[in-house]
User: What shape does this take?
Amino acid sequence: MLGLMQSQPLLISSLIEFAERHHGDGEIVSRRVEGDIHRYTYRDLAARSRQLANALDKEGLAFSDRVATLAWNGYRHMEMYFGVSGSGRVLHTVNPRLHPEQIAWIVNHAEDQVLCFDMSFLPLVQAVHAKCPTVKKWVALCDADKLPADTGIPGLISYEAWIAPQSSEYAWPQFDENTASSMCYTSGTTGNPKAALYSHRSTTLHAYAAALPDVMCLSARDAVLPVVPMFHVNAWGIPYSAALTGCKLVYPGPAMDGKSIYELIEAEKVTYAAGVPTVWQMMLGHMKPAGLKFSTLRRTVIGGSACPPAMIAAFQDDFGVEVLHAWGMTEMSPLGTLCTLKNKQLDLPKDEQMKIRQKQGRAIFGVDMKIVDGNGSELPWDGKTYGDLLVRGPWILETYYKGESPLIEDAQGRGWFPTGDVATIDANGFMQITDRSKDVIKSGGEWISSIDIENIAMAHPAVAMAACIGMPHPKWDERPIVAITLKQGAEVTREELLQFFEGKTAKWQIPDDVVFVEAIPLGATGKMLKTRLREQLKDYRLPGL
Ligand code: ADP
Assistant: This one.
């Protein structure tokens, strides 16, 4: 017997309709590429998203055609989130930090028909447009009078000129909630990038889950600053959850430096921010020497790579900001776990709580997770045993776009997505990433977590960034070394740093060497690129070898 309730498809257009009706005057503030601050409301956003949908119809785009963006976080990008997906097309957010060759490869692979870009990326588009034959319309996300006369890009039009003649009346079509809504390519640290193709259903369910109190806890009382880019995994789904909750949104545009972000947080009374650790590193680096404090910021969600405990402590103790450590992947829309304490943990001593906060956190309802050994047998949740982390759920990838399914079947025939991460899970369900499986250091048959080593190094006051990698060793197989960048003006010797590890980890896990480097290579999403670091250090030899 079926239930007798209404069956309405979960569609992205319903989010913007809701925001317009219930939070019509809710503010969306954006720093623009031009440098000025732009303000409007959810009502304006909804009307302009409909104009965009009409422009796409006029262009003759078919259902499920791909529309690409090369854009910062801002209101026009958000209009594309709703106008493109809402009208049944697929929004393809391209990461502008990728190599131009990779961008051309991705655009061709996705067969994008329209590509809309911020003016910061004009030189990039000029370099790649001839290699993108599927794109029949190039749109610059700017006012008509900001478009240079001769760009060399055929038929280039400004976004404002493109949508201006269009009506703001548009009836969002109704269709199957499993229809594709948007896509995002992984950064492709190994081989060509692969695409996750999200659906209206997966995106809407993820938007609900992300807003929950033990997840991102978003509400109509918040002012939210997503520093995490809209070009990578939909800014962790915040634009959708924002429409669902009606929170004020503050977009940083291209100005991602510590000073600009801090000023925006203060000026717009931001209560909640989200970003990867490297962004916050820059902001704290700007604030600490100047003795600056936050007036309104209360919580920040940090993920994408391990958040060093020193950063959690700095936010909490120096600035009164609660850090929510989060873990996820492009293939997971991206949220998988979030670290918030349980009721029974609130009375624990501070250092005990800190140990929990360092973990990547508890699974969100909708994400089923387990750790397994090399034979696929499930391992215990004791906080010590580590294994390959597998996940399943309605916003987790089943098959790559034009690719294969990476799923592993269990005895019941259910498919699990192998995350490529190695993790422990404790008795309270808190998951902790030990490493990416390819970064874990294998020494004398035991594993050393590069994240643990980096976290210790980062707690040293002179260290700005630390990357731990394994180096080949004839006896132990591999031994860890740690590459370090120093804070401006700070000094520390190799010996002092090695001594700093004493008593903080088992003796055999202490790195064999410290290598001081100018910079640690970062990938397109701000994560450390250990493959490149290994290349840079290919002539390095461990001491004594
Ligand atoms: P890519 O960088 O290849 O595009 P994603 O951006 O999807 O991939 O990154 C997913 C990976 O990032 C995870 O599998 C994990 O290794 C790492 N990661 C994400 N969040 C965290 C975190 N809080 N702590 C440690 N690692 C993390």
User: Anything to note?
Assistant: DSSP finds 16 helices and 26 strands in the chain. The mean pLDDT is 95. Residues 186-187, 189, 303-306, 325-330, 334, 360, 419-421, 433, 436, 525, 527 surround adenosine-5'-diphosphate (CB under 6 Å). Residues 12-255 form a domain with the Rossmann fold fold (CATH 3.40.50.12780).
